[in-house]
Fold each of these.
Amino acid sequence: MKHPLLQLNAVAALFAAGAAALAQATSIENDTGTSMVVVSATRTGLSGFDLPASVDVIDARASGASQARVNASEALAAVPGLVAQNRQNYAQDLQISSRGFGARAAFGVRGVHLIADGIPASMADGQGQAATFNLDMAERIEVLRGPFSAIYGNHAGGVIQLFSRDGAGPPTLELNASGGSDGARKLDLNAQGKSGGIGYLLDASRFDTDGYRSHSAAQREQSFAKITLAPVDGARLAIIASGLRQHDTQDPLGVSWATLQRDPRAGETDATDPQSPQRTFAERYNTRKSIDHQQIGATWEQRIGADRLRATMYGGNRDVIQYQAFSKAFQTPASHSGGVVDFARQFHGAELNWVHVDTLAGGKLTTSAGIEFARSRDVRQGFENFIGGQVGVKGNLRRDEDDTVSSIDPYLQSEWQAGSWLLSAGLRHSRVRIEVADHFLGNGNDSGSLAYRHTTPVVGIRYQINAHTNLYASAARGFETPTLNELFYSGAGAGFNFRLKPAQSTHLETGIKLRLRDGGSINTALFQVRTRDELATDLASGGRTSYRNAGATLRQGAEMALEAPLAYGLSTRLSLTTLRAVYQEGFGAVRPGSRLPGIPNANLYGELAWKAADERFGAGLEALASGKIYAEDANIEIPAPGYAVLNARINASQSWAGWRFKQYARLNNLLDRQYVGSLIVGDSNKRFYEAAPGRNWLLGASAQYAF
């Protein structure tokens, strides 16, 4: 594999013009780029510039104008401190981490709290699925990092909130179509408008891909509906329903370093296969996952003078069946729960929040008080994945249980503003209860319960030096309970792990935010996180992972985000993160000072974009770079090397009568670099590596008609 750092000169050259322009930026002419109101961090609505926290707002319409809008990683690549990796495996979803939290997730998202339109996309145990985000209808995405994330409670190492747009204006009908490399194709049809005071938004899409890697084909269907209305003066009611359907999504699994070097598209061959030693594990066991997810929720907001009352309720169901890859020998122990996971989940929750505005000591005092409740119940079964000599089929029952997770979190947060000062403080008390009712007693009774509780305080201060410079500092305590999936296994084949403790962390951050002329901005932050009882991989094989509590860890880093308009329709954007994440205490074969796996020590996103004066044409050049990443705790296996890649895009739009047309083209990985896109942390068979695509293309077009 080619060393990526040779490309960093190209990255530096890409932004040389931007740096020169910034050196001359000494005044403010337009601050719209930094004054967008966000609800993250305080829930009360302040500009990102005024918050004593690291928060970024992504214009989802702009970022999605030249993307397929299939993976949230498309929009999140430009956020400092955040790593969003596309595994090229739709059976396991994205790999997202915030300042290192969530990096070791075996599938889905943990350690980062996901929210869509005020409704959690993370379950009560902290496990979330970014695939449930509807990117076609998204208006903006807010990304909160650092101490203020702790006010969202369990698994809030960071917070990602998606906000869909409201139906407005005359009725419109829009069709989007895109296609690209490896058989990627997507159709999206949506309608929106507002009539009689009722806004409506309807969307349906289908995405198909043959997959870049061997045995990685997928099909995803999504639906979305949103109705907004004002039943009484000062009130707003939003009703939102969504669905996700993925059937027989192939799982390519990870591969060894030798296989990756031989062919990055290939799967790992199974030399023990009695039919053919050339077949891969994924092919032999036909590893795959089917998902059916539906949910509905409603939010009522009522203005009462300067105060606001908000109530949210939601519910849904999620059915999953997954076929994993286990060797015959690993299926022998009586304690084994089988290679087929089959569960039906029902979940629901609610939040009540009151915001009160008053005056205190010559300043404005805003207090937010609320309580959140969430509950999920899984009817879960496990089966052997073989019958006789045939594998990859549902066999004998090996696990049968009901798993219930509930959480209740009251919170209180206040902010006081006077002159140049803003002080903010919050407190949240979380209680998480996990109950297991085991109905399969042939391998012992795993019934039992766990109860976790923790109080997370957060404080922050901001001082405005002048109209375009803010200094801030913040601190918090956070915690992460083990997710239900992290509790399922204990060691090699043993049952439910009731011994796991929650990880507890102390967060510190300080930063400076600058407004530049013409809407430009520079945000910088220094941070430190100390964690005890960090969750670490114990054993991981064939899609099943068990965990243990490790010693203390330390994360120290810096972030910088820059946005600046240049001359002649050009603009530049740069995000840079450095992060040192290490074990302070050793355990087992892990020595003090070992790097935490799954976390790069540096990553960069850069962009040079151009837009015509009439906005009918645009183009951009993007650069992404990452440092090397270790695959396991002891740091003895070959790490994923660092990389740097370049992407290019162009777009155009036209209007005629009531029609609006758009087209775009993308060419990703221009230099056709071979690199590891993501890692399966701690895999016991050393099949850690998941290759990213080489040079690939994407074309898209849309037609919208306004009635």
Note: The chain has one domain: 4-706.
Amino acid sequence: MIMNEPKSEKKMNMPSLVSYIANKGNKFRLKLSMVSKDPLVIEKFLFPFMIVSESNPLANLMEAQIVSDADSEIKKVFLLIQKEECLLTSDELRPITNKDIEQCWQKAFRFYSDKNQDGSIAILSDQIGADKSLLPFQSLFYCKAEQIFFNPPCPICGLPLQQCYNDDLLIGSGLQPYSTSLRRYLFCPNCLDAIEQTDFYVYKLQVADPPILKDQSDLINGYGRLLAKETHLDAFPCSTCPKQLECYSSDKLAASRIIPFSFYPFFMLVFEAQSIKAIDFLSLISGASPKELCHRLIEKKEDGRVNCLRFIIENDLMNSPFLFDETEKFFLEVLYLKLSFLGELAQTIFSRLDIYRPPDIGLSLDQVWIKLTERAGLLPLFWNFKLSLIDIGADAFKTSLHPQIPPFYALHFLGTVWFYCLLVNRKQSLTDVYAAVESQIVKDASKKELNFKVFIEDASNQLFKPENIFWDPDCRKHNTVENSWESIWEKALNMGCKLLNAGLSADSEWVEKKFLIELEGLREEIKSKLFQQLTVTVQVPAQAPVETENKAIHDILVKIMDKWGIGFTAKPNDIKPSEMGIEEPDETELEKTVVISTQSSKDLEKKVVPQQEQDDEEIRETVILSSDDFDKQTLTPITSEAQEASEDIPETVMISPPKVSEPSDSSNKKEVSSDHFLKKKSNEFEEDDFLAETVILHPDVDKE
């Protein structure tokens, strides 16, 4: 019990998160995710809430859902919640205080509020102050036995405890001031005002703390004194709980059943839930299986990341995550996806380069998250993702003496992520990659470009091989890399080298826009190789029953008329091309059009394509002949001289086009013989690949 002369400096009334998470009276509420649905399992955990990530030294990222009054999940969210204790090391030259952390949260709130048009953050009305600032929520405790949240009361008077912001009061009690340290204390302002004495409580005791200071166990066990009181107990669940006797008996079970969700008042930001951490996403697009990653993370006690992977497995989202995983182009696809990830990360960081300057704590790959599309779409799972950086920044920790130098630290960070993304896999670790990068690149930072071709072709050094982009580089199923693709791989590695060198050498000529244009050009080059038009070779069936040459041609033209002239009842030779929307060709053009082979019927049976297998593309490139030509019973054979002159087009004949009714004057018509035509055109067929777009018919000419 501390006696103090100065009265408490009462803080503004803080909102309570209980009003958002209580299941009574709310049509919609915030439900915190637990590590298990079994109450018996929950009681065994010291902290049973699902922590997705705790790598940030200032905040934990937790999972929650917005649910209806029937407990139906509406939307999954992430809660970025202030930690009880800051995990930053104190530095006398650059001290970090509670005031700095407050400022950090306020700046983060303004940043995400300004970009709230993308729906990435949900703002609760109670947490907005009169000056539009972010308000902290009251301390929040949880009873695992009854699964109830409540704000911790004072063990003496039963009114809510508050955080002490009065430096004079703290110093007078032998404690560290709030504004110039990282220590925080709970106290009862009502008791201090009424009887001029109060207890102070901390989350954890330190060696140098005075003996009068109490921790969370002392606070929770002290609630036994409230059970005999009849006032101020409406919000204290233990007063009506049937288990109160066993909790506050000699066994003191209350200290193990009641835990602080947040011992001190805490800032909180609500984000749209993401699908997976970027680190795990990079492993998956490299070819790792979610089950294998789960086993690895279970060993590391990363329950939050395991939960994300299990969601992908249970919802069968990995059914078809790639386009080319069963082809030799899988290398190009993985490289394209990884460069797309790096491009999004670079744009995100470049947009905040004024924040990410050394020394800061805001850059970490652990804080990068990926949102995958859960619904089926036109693109595979990994081709439709969005990158998000969930943190609170750290620019508030800069002092006035900190030089405003160009943000080379951010470029160096991007460079390290670049090589992590391309080279870390099951076989070689982050330590191996960074050691090799340091020995090959960092030792000569003056070189903006390195000859990675030498590293790739070095048989004694396998680390820079393009196969390392795969999770399992020794797997022969997906590690095929064509020699022609190595130049693309070299360009990708060299771009990472440029980032590292820009950060290490403080390159004043560095231009972010130029780098992004170069990266986009590399991505387009890879995409063009992935989706380049392929030359399709159509194999002709071995047998093709053919009757006479006239009937074969007639049947083809009837089929064309059926497709193009639906609704017409006239015979094919009664319909003019203009009536079918086709421009009538000039007669001189017709004389240069159709080539029909005179191969024997035996060869014909082997090579001719059945009429029913002609596709639409071939039909559109076929010249329509009138039925007058089919009444002719014989074909004019090619002379032996013509055959010798056209060795590239063997055994061919010409059919003259039908004559068009015109005035008898034909002086301006030019007669072109088949010999002359073949001699003139045989070389042209080779040059412009005309035969590839012409339907070659092989009628039986044995019968005359």
Note: The CA atoms of residues 108 and 300 lie 30 Å apart.
Amino acid sequence: MILKYYFSFITFLVITVSCFAQLKKANGYFELTNYPEAIKYYEKTLKKDPNNAEALRNIAFSHKKLKNYTAAEEYYQKATSLGNVLASDHLHYGQVLKNNNKPTEAKKQFKLFLEKEPNSFLGKVLLNSIEEITVWEKEDKAFEINLVENINSKYSDFCALVYQDALIFISERQVDFVNEKTNSSTNRPYLSIFYSKKEKNFEKVKEFSNQLSTEYHDGPVSISKDGNTIYFTRSIKGELSKKSINHSKIYQASAKGNKWKDITPMPFNSENYSVAHPWITEDGKTLFFTSNMPGGFGGMDLYMSSKTDEEWGKPVNLGKEINTALDEVFPYIKDTLFYFASDGHGGYGGLDIYSIVFKNGKAQGNPENLKAPINSPADDFGITFQDKDTGYFSSNRPGGIGSDDIYSFKWEGLTEKTAITGVLQYGKLSADNTKIDLLDENDQVIQSTTTDKNGNFKFDKLSLDENYLIKIDESDESKLDQAKLYITNSNGEKVILANKLGKGKFTFKALPYTYYDELELLEEVDESLLTINIYGQVYKKLPGDYSEGMEILILDEEGNVIGKARTDKDGKFIFDKLAPDEVYMFMLEEGDGNFNVIVLDENGKVIDAAKKTGGKFKYHRLTSDKTIITLINEIDEVIKIAENENFIISKILYDYDSYEINEASKKELDKLITILKKNKGIGVELSSHTDDIGSAKFNLDLSQKRADAAVEYILSKGIEKKRIIAKGYGKAHPIAPNKLPNGDDNPEGRAKNRRTEFKVIKIK
């Protein structure tokens, strides 16, 4: 019995030592990126120890690097089924699932990754990309693609470039039948440069140049516009051993008759990192390339080097707009559009092709995914143009002939699209945070969105002249009865009241977006010019002791909700466009009975305390201690106002650096003129204000000119001069912050500060 246990222990020990030895060998090849050899030894390890987490993780990653995504998925599934899963396992597993066109499963892995790495920008990008793909699939396709006949082989063929009457491309097919060497990282033949003439339908493929061919990797290439200089990637091992590491370099050569001579390495080559995939600009002064040199954003980054006289400058990283923590490769530039392939911007999976505006040596804006059918869940890369509408790219997507294949593309001009912006209201209240659906003529939902805090919404990529229906997702019948939907122009101003088709349904025709800017603004005839703003503050013990974010409602004397607002960081709130002679009540979102409400003027000075009654706060605006003026407004209502009270005319708008009264502003001033004509015993003290863009003197002068222009218009309508006083205050009296607390611009605040105010005064 003792002998039996002894031999069992010895057998276990031998297996363990053998397993450890196989794993050590596998890890050695893995670190050298010799993935085929690494896989061989990981498989031996897993035969003896099927649940070895390190072996499963690394063999999965090896298959991923070799683009064998089916095998990679199988091993990642096993690796993530074990305990103690690394965050990177979820990330890589998700990427593989995207490559295998399994977005739902990929989304789960990206979420698990973000649970472990919540601050990962890459994780957030990849998770968001799943949603983007869903939207992209519904869009019209901008390209027609075709697999190029004859030129592709059972090997990898990619990076086609139009040159004279032929296509130059890179391929794993062997130069001759003697060279049997293979690349240790992929266990496939080395790359060489070939060409094939288009006029012969690419039926004959030949070696491009024996001067540029070696026994190891050659290509991709870029050729100067004059055809005299070629730039190409070359990768040669110094020592032919399994443990040597290969770094790609870029070389240039000059055309001498039918030969390429003077092969010269670029000055930024290195033995410590790779540089590859050159692309030269048309003027021959800038070379783009990819590199994993130190100091980048991670993986392979895109760089450029500029030529001064005959010297190439130090490489410059193209920046975070283009480069990510993963790989950016295969650069190409056409006019002001820079194209590249990346697996770090989300996309469909693997490498996707992107474009970005590139001017004055810098990327501008954000990269734009070229979408399907150019991009796919596989690797898509190496785009070049033959003319403005056609060209070539490479992909290892299913349905090809070899590993990578060359495809042609043709730009298909898409049907012109438009957008629609609008605002949804329930009576006079903005319908905030309300889901609305966009339906086509067949009542199929094609887009959905949610209104913002002001009831605004937008639908884009609509077909011109098509009829659409907007449906409100709201079960409250009373709200649907009051619902109004307005189409707005680019300034957010109402120009069309959408046609109502039953409860919560509205129809409209999609027109060019510029059309809405040409329409006259809708007149809100149910709204008097003589409206006021009410400012207030919520607090418990002392003003300012309540944090921001409480919703507060304002009700009329009958208890109808007529407005809602949200308090700021000091508990302050504002309601605008209210009738001046009503009794108002405030109702707080919080149920705590310890709150108080005070009423302020526009400068923050306390003018009254709202009286608490039955969970609400009552505010009598016009008390007996105020000097009251009774007058008739422009819509023939008899109203009471307090003398010297400010009324804000928000619709007197001016173009930038202009004081000319435009047509929309004239309509507002006409209302004021009507009030003055109906009420002979009053005058107005008019003041004009600006935001804080520009110097104090500039804004003071501008506001005075605007005030004077308003007065001149009023006088031209027959109003006596003694009834008008005007003054410009520049940026001295803002009623809202011009900047947010974090220092960013506050467009809403600036809009409120660009205003004209007037006080009603008695004429002696």
Note: Confidence is low (pLDDT under 50) at residues 3-14, 176-182, 238-243.
